[in-house]
């Protein structure tokens, strides 16, 4: 692996950062909203599944 000096490294880093396509404010906002909605939906889903498992387990354990 070739070794570069610190000046070359900084130049390469700046060149690579210049290639990055940054998202717009609208894209960030929409993506954030989508993540929050999906997290809420998944939390509700797992809450319902947990309730079914708990009620089923309680039913089995009280039968014995």
Automatic annotation (TrEMBL):
<keyword id="KW-0653">Protein transport</keyword>
<keyword id="KW-0813">Transport</keyword>
<dbReference type="GO" id="GO:0006605">
    <property type="term" value="P:protein targeting"/>
</dbReference>
<comment type="function">
    <text>Essential subunit of the Sec protein translocation channel SecYEG. Clamps together the 2 halves of SecY. May contact the channel plug during translocation.</text>
</comment>
<dbReference type="Pfam" id="PF00584">
    <property type="entry name" value="SecE"/>
</dbReference>
<keyword id="KW-0811">Translocation</keyword>
<keyword id="KW-0812">Transmembrane</keyword>
<dbReference type="InterPro" id="IPR001901">
    <property type="entry name" value="Translocase_SecE/Sec61-g"/>
</dbReference>
<comment type="similarity">
    <text>Belongs to the SecE/SEC61-gamma family.</text>
</comment>
<keyword id="KW-1003">Cell membrane</keyword>
<keyword id="KW-0472">Membrane</keyword>
<dbReference type="InterPro" id="IPR005807">
    <property type="entry name" value="SecE_bac"/>
</dbReference>
<dbReference type="GO" id="GO:0065002">
    <property type="term" value="P:intracellular protein transmembrane transport"/>
</dbReference>
<dbReference type="InterPro" id="IPR038379">
    <property type="entry name" value="SecE_sf"/>
</dbReference>
<dbReference type="GO" id="GO:0009306">
    <property type="term" value="P:protein secretion"/>
</dbReference>
<dbReference type="GO" id="GO:0005886">
    <property type="term" value="C:plasma membrane"/>
</dbReference>
<keyword id="KW-1133">Transmembrane helix</keyword>
<protein>
    <recommendedName>
        <fullName>Protein translocase subunit SecE</fullName>
    </recommendedName>
</protein>
<dbReference type="GO" id="GO:0008320">
    <property type="term" value="F:protein transmembrane transporter activity"/>
</dbReference>
<comment type="subunit">
    <text>Component of the Sec protein translocase complex. Heterotrimer consisting of SecY, SecE and SecG subunits. The heterotrimers can form oligomers, although 1 heterotrimer is thought to be able to translocate proteins. Interacts with the ribosome. Interacts with SecDF, and other proteins may be involved. Interacts with SecA.</text>
</comment>
<feature type="transmembrane region" description="Helical">
    <location>
        <begin position="28"/>
        <end position="49"/>
    </location>
</feature>
<dbReference type="GO" id="GO:0043952">
    <property type="term" value="P:protein transport by the Sec complex"/>
</dbReference>
